[in-house]
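Ticket opened by: R.M.
Priority: normal
Category: complex prediction / small molecule

The reporter submitted a protein together with coenzyme A and asked that the result be attached to this ticket for the collaborator who will pick it up next week. Submitted input follows.
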Amino acid sequence: MKIEKLNTDNLRGGVFCAHGKPKSEEMYDQMEAWLDGNLLRGQIARADNGEVAGFVLYYPIEEAPLDVEGEGLYMVQCVYVKPEYQKAGTGKALVEAAMADAHKNGATGLAAEGFSDRINTGFEYKPGAFFAHMGMTATDTRGQGTLYYVGFNTEAEPPRYLEPDFKPKPHMEPRIKVDILDCRRCYTFVHNRNLVETVLAQVGEDKVTLEVHDQNDRAAILDKGMSTGVFIDGKLTFFDGPISEDDIMNAIEIAYNARLRATDR
Ligand SMILES: CC(C)(COP(=O)(O)OP(=O)(O)OC[C@H]1O[C@@H](n2cnc3c(N)ncnc32)[C@H](O)[C@@H]1OP(=O)(O)O)[C@@H](O)C(=O)NCCC(=O)NCCS
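Result attached by the on-call engineer:
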């Protein structure tokens, strides 16, 4: 197994999570821009047969398109090893390569977000226990997520979650309002935004209006204290994991019927 530095040439082949999926170019184009701008960094693990086995993506925390803040650390967005290559040291090699790169570039440490056990949900996740096993210490928590970090020196400060501060206003009746925070760092959010747009086109503009907020730069994320999420009538309804057309349609119907009942009163 070989570790290669992520660059614009190996990006589309190496970051395999969006292969063959609709509108995946939206994610790759965004990542390419961040790579060109020296924000995104990463490592690709290649198996001896030449196939990509896994990847890790990370950023200087001050510029990360993630809901975190801190000073001096590099922050992992994603580490992903294909199931057939797991349990053979690839994840460890990727995290160690990220640590070495962070150290070489003068970072004070490496941070990552991990989740508790979700194996039965069928949703891919970054297990917090893996980061703990890599020698990282748990610090802040938000919802189901926990931030982990390891310091390379005494200057390292733990990472923190941003404080969410976004309360979109519902429309005046009868239409309901959907707000999407559109961050293209991960295919899940590209998928979710496209699905919401598809469903809303079916529902029709007489019932619902949509506002898409571009959350692909740090200033926009700091402004709202969050990078992703789907708000229905001002309420954060989806923020984590892939959603389905049925999920969205049901949530829209519930919000629209509640609005009609309120209007009738
Ligand atoms: C978590 C993950 C990266 C681990 O990769 P891996 O290649 O299987 O891990 P390794 O074989 O390098 O394991 C390294 C060490 O971590 C341990 N480890 C691996 N997975 C672990 C887990 N889920 N919990 C605790 N420890 C774990 C191993 O036992 C091993 O310990 P050792 O060095 O003492 O023997 C991999 O399971 C994965 O990609 N999961 C899916 C993550 C995901 O969904 N990413 C996409 C969303 S960002």
